[in-house]
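User: Please predict the structure of the protein below. I'd like the answer in structure-token form so I can feed it into my own downstream comparison script.

Assistant: Understood. Taking the following sequence of 449 residues as input:
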Amino acid sequence: PRLLFRPNFTQYSGYLTSSSGSGDSRRLFYWLVESSHVDAATAPLVLWMNGGPGCSSVGGLLMTNGPFLANDRAELERNDFAWNRLANVLYIDSPSGVGLSEPGPTDLTELNDNATTRLNLGALLHFYSLFPEYRGRAFYIAGESYAGIYIPLLASAIIDGGHRPGLINLKGIAVGNGLHMPYNESVFESHRRALTDAMGISYSRYQSFYHLFKFVCMLPNKQRTMPQYTCILLKDSRRVNPYNIAQRCYSDGQLNNYPCLNATGLTSFLNDADARVALGVNENFAVNFTICNDTLFSECIQSVRDVLGEFQSLADHNMPVLLYTGVLDYMLPVGLTLQLLGRLPPDPVSRQDAWFWCLRKHRLQIGGIQRSYLGGRIRYRTVTSAGHSVATERPEIGLQLLQELLAAGLGHSTTESCVAAAAAVDWDSNSGWLICWVTFHYCSAACQF
């Protein structure tokens, strides 16, 4: 219902059964959209994970990289840069109680990253039992924000559990603007100073805005999860958006304690009775959909772990890892990922080069910087023109990021990934962009289409 176009791909939705390890089964909602532009019978499978913790991946489908984008009238418009142009994409609301997944445990001790990892792995195994045609096919995991914790833990569990390659043929992972380690106050202090200077306001006035963003500072148990100046985010007459400091924030209130996040359209759609019937939502599931679960956020954010060891282990297994950061994000700024990677020795031949993206007519534009670690198995990119969600704000770049991940998993070159991404773009639509995630000497060859 409410579709503004006729899809040319197959899709499935329903529930996957899993357990967090306590013995009780959980039912997680999933939505699988098969590929629209390559053969779905042979295309790789990509699992997309949103973060939070406690935010809906199905919400990510409808506002980030799915084939449908929910508008303010709760109608579904076509996404010209949908990731299912290049792959079959699976979205799972996890853990229990998130999005359309059925309510989770009342015991809050189960709300931790290890339990969520077991839950995600169990759901994935159930998926392969329901869709045996995907067994052994190339599989990738991608996501953003707190998925920077979920993804390396799930990837490690797949490898350590011996589930690949015959069943779960994991080929690579990617994380955008991820949280990978506990917050470091020095990172946010440097951002605070830069922002207050840029905005030209006094520190005393800066402090006066504390109450507007205390959601990430003072949780129900009164313990702070971030330093105070992380939370005193700027909101003067120009309404700075902490997820993209180059944009204004037009939301007066907070949606589930996430400021400036407009999810009205997708929330209305996923609470629509006809839409729920079409998606196979449990008719006894009376809880309204919300983009993020406050209880899960409050409980899980207090015990952020360091996953550098998991990244190193994945690299030791020759698993490509792509990390990227939109530099306009204040919530999880560039400094956090750079601080994590600063504990690794950069590749001897790796320089902090610029990468370029190009328009259709071969004009080049600097997209950010790039660097590699551990023999190129870990790659890092910055995106100068994006904030917290690169795939939402710069969908053309997000599509090329996906292609780079797919190419790395198959051992293909960056030039080949540019060609494949170009083939997936409908040049008669509004998507008149072609991006090349390449250094300058690659770009001149890769962009000659």
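That's the full token string. Residues 113-130 form the longest helix (18 residues).
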